[in-house]
């Protein structure tokens, strides 16, 4: 099967520490790996980028074509992406900028790379500007050093820390959204509808990470522990039941995010508060009963 242009650039990038020749020679280039919106397959795309402070910006220009590129649709469906710059790799959250902020960032992009202005002039669609934000580190509470992972118990705590931190960031975004609404509405007026892409992307990434974690626990972790500790079957029954409760709240949040323009912020905030209560109680209980059972299991597991 012939190698595609993107694949050949990706291979050259990885073989040469981020340096490539041809049309990208000397350009600021990164590799963006997204998850297919429909296929679920991982796709890597070489893209030019522009720095803006501590942020990385990529533009869904598609060379000025009438339609958005596939990678843009992928990151809307799956906001968690992987970024490679030079020899560095990291997980990121992809957040398209909106309104005045998008215009400000696009103007910055055009100052740094004028060709994007030509692409915008060639199409009627507004070229999306995507901010690539570092994902929440898999570490302890803010300000703490990353957790040292030597056992399976440590790994579970690392994942739980990550989920708690993601949920706190979603809540902070929602609180900021309500504060902004309050500053622009008159006394007694109801909050305006709509949530915004930052809340959507961050909450969707959290929900997808949570679903993956709980599916993995139900399918692999819990059955594996139960083989060695069959006397705690009632514990696993309770944890699985709590997973189903959390999943119902999660599904409700995702449904509210489906149409940002008509989403009701008060309802979303209430569901998010419910998620915070249920998930934290679940994680606390799981840590109380499961961690002692796996405290001596090495991580990563030994090979065959």
Automatic annotation (TrEMBL):
Superkingdom classification of source: Bacteria
Domain Hemerythrin-like: 153-294
Coiled coil: none
CDD domains assigned: Hr-like (cd12108)
Catalytic function, reaction form: oxidized coenzyme F420-(gamma-L-Glu)(n) + a quinol + H(+) = reduced coenzyme F420-(gamma-L-Glu)(n) + a quinone
Pfam families per UniProt: F420H2_quin_red (PF04075), Hemerythrin (PF01814)
Family named by the database record: Belongs to the F420H(2)-dependent quinone reductase family.
PANTHER family (alphabetical): F420H(2)-DEPENDENT QUINONE REDUCTASE RV1261C
Name this polypeptide is given: Cation-binding protein
Species the sequence originates in: Streptomyces camponoticapitis
